[in-house]
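Nucleolar complex protein 3 homolog
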Amino acid sequence: MGKSRRKEKKVIPPPQLPPDVGEEEIEFSDEDVEFVKENKEYARFVSRIDTTAINRQCVGEAKTKTVEDKYEEERSKKKVAEEEKESNEIQVDPVDVLPVKTLDGKLHYRTVTKRSKLAEAEPDEAEEDVLDDENVLNKSQRRAKAKKSKKEAKKQGKEVPKEIIEEEETPQAAVLAEVKEELSAEETFENKKNRLAELGMQLLSDPEAHIRSLKEMLDISKEENAKIVKLCLLSVLAVFKDIIPGYRIRLPTEKELEMKVSKEVKKTRFYESTLLKAYKSYLQKLVAFERQPVYSQVANRCICTLLDAKPHFNYRDNLLSAVVGNISSPDEVIRRLCCSTVRSLFLNEGKHGGELTVQAVRLIADQVKSHNCQLHPNSIEVFMSIRFDEDIGKRDREEANKKKFKKNDKRNNQEEQNQVQENERKKSKREMMSKIRDEVNADYKGVTYEPDAMERRKMQTVTLSAVFETYFRILRKTMYSIGESSTEEDDTTLNPGAFGPHPLLAPCLDGLAKFTQQLDLDYLGDLMNYLKKLASSSSLSTNLKKKKTKLLTVSERLRCCLVAFKVMRSNLNALNVDLQDFFVQLYNLILEYRPGRDSGEVLAESLKIMLCDDRHQDMQKAAAFVKRLATFALCFGCAESMSALVTLKNLLQRNVKCRNLLENDVGGGSVSGSIAKYQPYATDPNLSGAFASVLWELNLLTKHYHPAISTLAGTIANMNTSQNQTFLSAVTPQQAFADYSLANETFEPKSESRKLNTKRKRDSGGEEGKDVPELDMGELKKKLKENFTILRGIKEDERVRMELQFEKKKPTKKQSNLAKKKPTKSPKSKKKI
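Tokens:
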């Protein structure tokens, strides 16, 4: 019985394991832990379990194995089976089959076993089934098969078949690759953009803690994508504008580094050194990007904004040299940026103490010299924004003088009145107060960028000398270019550049007119001689035979005349210079003016300053200008004619005798001058004989299509010659030219031709047709023939008359023979008779 019972005992397998759960997913609350600690008695049965009995029942009599070993074997078998299943299954292409979404939200694609048909078929039928399976396989299966065959061919060292290559290089694969590249580029751009924003926000929030992130931001500019590089440069610019302190950083010396300092000092030193290194590397990158056409505008914008916002910081000399180098750039955007930054430096000298003004003027002067005055006009127009203060240190002098006078008054009063000396306490208090004030003033000067009055004067003199040096260099260069100098006539540098033959002359003349008050009187005589020669350049150039001479335009010559008058006015006529030559040039330039070629504003300004504002005028000269302006008003548009008529009216109101030109006497005006006949093409206004003529041009101007010109001409023609005092017109030639120019013109002449209505009304159509008489074509033909015969007869009569006159002039044959037969009488025969 015992043996049978032992045979009946069987091994009971252990229960299956629960699903695997990760340790991270298992959560224990604090309440569970406390409950276990309090009720440890409930877990004592675990220690009393007989593990040997369990092993006998589940494993058998084997002493080496336990239940735990059996569980591990089952787990290993499960893993092997899953791996084989995954290897035998192929995932279907997502394009062909829709996925299945589980409750967890995950997508599962359908899978197919590899050996669906070939495993069941016999080896003879396998080859036939392969062809059928190739047609059934999806795209993903074909690609997997092609890859596998390619790998096998490479391992064996064979050539890859063409069919496999064609299967790989399908058009869909190429399109998918392009889409992937585009998506990857967009993703990288967005990632870089977000990273730059994060780093920038960190630096702005706490720059000392995140100062090392500047290096990471600068490293992003090494990318090949242009958008990322531009974004990086602009973002770093915004960070530096906010981070840079209001003082210049001075790195510690070797001795200072050896000294023991506190942690705060070490922290500030590290912050300043890293900031300065990053700033230096950033500027180097900007200078490198400036040469590339893709990044030139962005790099110049960053340089200009840094120099404008932080002109006191380190490496400002490098920034200024970069800005001045591009001040005459052919790119209009870069040129405007550089000019605006230089103007802001000149206007806001409080930021840098005037040191950058001196450096900028010197750099521009060197650039003008190196380029031989062939730069854009904006490079010299920048000087117009410089401010020169004549009262530098005047307040300090007045305060010092007041203190001296007060001390002297006190001493005199003390001697006279014999006052008692002050106590020593009061004296000590005053001395202490004065010392404290001096210390505060010294500290204030050290912190601020305003130098002393002496230093400011020195800087102002240096800038003035550099400015006038460039101006006189430009004047001398123009004199050589028009052929005045014989030494540089054959120089090849006189060829016109990209900006014209004399691009810097106009801004040079404007600057001379503005800053002549700062110029010494010793140099004004030379300046007036230069201006006189430039204004009369056309007369000089006519005598030259060479073709390389460059003539000045009418507007440039008018500017020379204007500058001469402004120089005389600013110096209160302190110079003994005759301005008659400039009046002669203006008299001749009025006829040489062309509206499309020359500037009308310059002409209007010259008429105002030289004719309207001049008080002392000769009668003959005024009459010549009146006549010349009247003829000028007939030849040009509304703006030019209006400015000429305003000047003409002003001259007639100032000079009463010139109103005799308004009379209609036979043979000229009633007041005849030294010249009895009017010379319209005379070069000198005093030799024109304008009083021998009449202003007949006003009669034509009264019929002008513009009502303003016609009315003004009528008022001038009706002026009374007996009035000695008249009110001058408030309108200037400049204002008249600006009001009636084409840009501001609002007048539209009305056409007198009436529009004919070809439409007929339904009701009154027959009545209107009755009033119009019908034309007889026969009578019309007869009249036309008669007129044609009359015209033809007139032409024939003229032809016959010409033939008769020609025949009368010809001598006949008899007259010619008689003239030959007549003997010539000698003078001796006459005496005998």
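The mean pLDDT is 75.
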